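The records we work with from here on pair a chain with its fold. The integers have meaning only within a learned vocabulary of local backbone shapes. A complete example follows; check for yourself that the lines match position by position.

:::
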Amino acid sequence: MDADGPIVTPLTRLLGIRHPIVSAPMGRASRPELAAAVTNAGGLGGLGFSWDSPQRIEELVGAVRRLTDDGPFLANFVLEWDQHQRMETALSAGARIVSFFWGDIAPYMDRAKAAGALVVHTVGTPEEARRSIDLGVDILVAQGNEAGGHVWSQLSTMVLVPLVADVAGKVPVLAAGGIADGRGLAAALMLGASGVWLGTRFLASTEAACHADYKRRLIEAAASDTIETTLFDGGWPDAPSRVLRNRTVEAWEAVGHPESGSRPGEGEEIGRTPDGNPVRRYSFASLLSGGQGEIDDFAIYAGDSVGLVHEILPASDIVRALIEDAAQIMAQRAGHCSDCSTKG
């Protein structure tokens, strides 16, 4: 492989994109500027609509379509809540790639397909992948346990991706969890993925809508600073997520990990959303740009790949570095193997 050439995969061919890189739809941290920057750089930008009003969804879709000159983007919905109206609004506004996580996709498939949309589903087991394929999904996301934010699987990305790829057939698979650089992209492709789905790396981008203190914590953190916990379950009961350990986590641990209802400071207001709504301690809300509060009181979502994130960069630079490094690694390995075969 030419280190300067494109990395062509079933995913890039299906979506008509240059690079097999998708920015994860990280709720309200994934504003149109971030999604558009990734799409305009040759990848696929993602937007999360799970908690937005129909009017807000129309505004967000319109913004990303203008910023990308109608380039492709992904609209995501978490199925802990009914998402029929939100999906309908997004489709009517022009979304043509819809993504689901955390629930049964069957009730949504017919409408999405009737609108001509491609359907993406995030899975945590090969069994879930097989059922998704039977229902007609177009792309699978194999999310390993080391991923940041809300996690579904108990398997590592290294194990889950080939298991899902084995049952996927011609359905492209995206690898998610623990990937933040070109080495991770190259490894994912070797495992059978057609691309990568990145969250933590794009949270530390100039375009991400998370607070500056959040971004600072990301670039300062080590991989060992993350934990999987159901602590931040206010508004989303019993939902495990991977976060950075902070003083809220430490205060809870210090008193013996009490259950909801008996946690230190439970229910107190810790800050405000950018819209001015109060945020309570142990809410699943994160600290966004324009919000108020101290970062150590909030959930700081991050995957184990945070240990590989050392600087805040424009999303286009992140895409470029991922592709250049992965292509170079793959070209070097191909050359090395060729030398071995000729000398053996």
User: Anything to note?
Assistant: Residues 338-344 have pLDDT under 50 and may be disordered.
